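ugh ok fine here u go
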Amino acid sequence: MVLLKDSSTKKVIREQYEQLWNELLIRDEERAERILKELEYELLPTHEKILRPLKKILSPFKTRLIWILLLSVIAFFLVAYVLFIYISLWIEDF
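structure:
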């Protein structure tokens, strides 16, 4: 596989690039940004393509609020379970 900078078809590819750039200039800004993001994604190495969706999935867990809510819910159910057992044993003694 030859790098583009060493390729003999570099000028042809450069002309195609210029044509695409001119097409992007007459498109909507949002659509052009989306197309460029897709192109950027295609140029990423394989391991980064795999990690990018995982980063999107795990990004909400980077905030403290989510962790506080998660730990609060777990603590609530643990306390509720312990209280249920304690009250059940207490009632059984009567």
